[in-house]
Amino acid sequence: MVLGKQGAGKGTQCVRLSHHYVVPHVSTGDMLRAAVKSGTPLGAKAKETMDRGELLGDDIIMEMVAQRIAEPDARARGFILDGCPRTTHQAEMLAQLLAPIDIDLAIDIDVPTRQVLRRLADRRVCMDCGANYSTSAPPKVNWTCDVCGGEVVQRQDDTEAAIERRLDLYEHQTAPLIDWYEARGQMARVNGVGTADAVLARIIRAIEERRGGRPKAARRRR
Ligand code: ADP
Fold first, then answer.
1. Is the pTM of this model over 0.85?
2. Cβ(192) to ligand 1 under 6 A?
3. How many domains does the chain have?
4. Has residue 217 been placed in a domain?
5. Is 221 a catalytic residue?
6. Most buried residue, 88, 162, 170, 192, by CB count within 10 Å?
7. Nearest to residue 61, comparing CAs of 88, 85, 25?
8. What is the reported pLDDT for 221?
């Protein structure tokens, strides 16, 4: 499970991790944006809340996550969870959902607030596949996604007011999860400043350290 402030690089790193370990990337933000785009009842309900930068209800989110991780790919290979839990209540619900094993490791990608603010102002995303770009590293051709050809735009919740609200919620609701997982011996903190490759290498090192330290019998059970 990957934690980090908005703009810390969670999305970017989770996509890379999912390729590296060949496991699905389960992102609540991406699932919700897909629901908004395809006009499902969940999407219709979520859009206004998301645009304001507020959080959706814990029950809606956990039901969506429960459904996704019950699918065969996640059951067979495990998953990388991005965007959930975002509150201690969600973390408790997740632990219950996964009992008796829970997540293997929570990773916090740590980036100072002034730096995420700069990254968010410059951030641009593909409307179709969610690939991330920035004004200083745009797609090769005219704001058309290099990966899928979709249109690359500024996210609707990357306005100054919504960013401020999301960072405030992060500090009050999500940051306490660092202590929560730390107390359970499930936390690894990674410096998120540097190139995407450098940060990825740090995350992989943290995961491998964790795996190496684990008793063999516990690993064989998966
Ligand atoms: P960011 O981390 O940049 O805020 P995400 O893409 O993870 O963006 O999520 C976008 C929005 O989706 C959030 O601002 C919130 O409204 C909603 N959302 C995503 N995950 C959750 C969650 N676990 N609990 C509540 N709301 C969520």
1. yes
2. no
3. 1
4. no
5. no
6. 192
7. 85
8. 46
**Smallest CA separation from ligand 1 atom 2, residue:** 6
Q: Are strands 132-134 and 123-126 parallel, antiparallel or unpaired?
A: antiparallel
Confidence of residue 222 (pLDDT cuts 50, 70, 90): very low
Q: What is the pLDDT of residues 62-106, one digit of tens each?
A: 999 999 999 999 999 999 999 999 999 999 999 999 999 899 999
**Average pLDDT of span 34-55:** 94
Residue 218 within a domain: no
86 is catalytic: yes
Instruction: Assess whether the C-beta atom of 125 lies below 6 angstroms from ligand 1.
Output: no
Q: Is 13 in the pocket of ligand 1 (CB under 6 A)?
A: no
- Catalytic residue flag (residue 52): no
Beta bridge partners of 191: 110
Cα of 28 from ligand 1 centre, angstroms: 7
Q: Is the CB of 43 under 6 A from ligand 1?
A: no
> 212 falls in which pLDDT band (50, 70, 90)?
confident
Q: How much is the average pLDDT of 2-7? A: 95
Of ligand 1's atoms, which has the minimum distance to the CA of residue 85? 23
Over residues 23-40, mean pLDDT: 94
Q: Which of 105, 124, 119 is nearest to 17 (CA)?
A: 105
Is position 148 within any domain? yes
DSSP 53-83: TPPPPHHHHHHHHHHHHTSHHHHHH--EEES
Tell whether the model's pLDDT for residue 216 goes beyond 80: no
Q: Can you give the residue range of the structural domain that contains 180?
A: 2-211
User: Is 37 considered catalytic here?
Assistant: no
Instruction: Name the DSSP letter for residue 150.
Output: P
